[in-house]
What we know:
Layout: E1 2-6, E2 11-16, E3 24-30, E4 34-39, E5 43-48, E6 55-59, E7 66-72, E8 77-82, E9 87-91, E10 96-101, E11 109-115, E12 118-123, E13 127-134, E14 141-149
Antiparallel strand pairs: 1-2, 3-4, 4-5, 5-6, 7-8, 8-9, 9-10, 11-12, 12-13, 13-14
Amino acid sequence: ILKRWDISSGKLEEKIVFEKQKLLTCITIINNHKLAIGSEEGFIIIFDFFSKDGIKYINAHYKKCINALCFSKYNQTLFSCSKDRNIKIWNLETLKCTNILEEQHKQNINDIVLRGNNLISCSIDKTIKIYSIEGNDENDKINEESEEKYDDFVS
Length: 155
């Protein structure tokens, strides 16, 4: 369920039910007016909360929980990661997967972040990987730059 509240009045303005999904796991904002929402069932839900243009479902990571989403304003690309150990790259105009970084970690990928031309992933397997993203179209080249393993971390 998506609930939109008026902060000044504290009143509920709108309630939207995502019928197909049991548990929502993560969220990111796209272009200041759309939400990309990950689900436990492996779907990405795209929703424009101003125009209410309709809800679009992408079967992104077949029956594997989506752990994180991030958005690149530069080339209008969405990145997703999952318990399936894959990172997928999505063209937001076509809603098609344009690249898959398959089994990049030995266990679940917990999170991904985008910083400049670098995509960074971390996993339960105690590794952090950094990928260089080159280009600006759906055939972007992605190179794994480094891998760091953190065992027995002491602060």
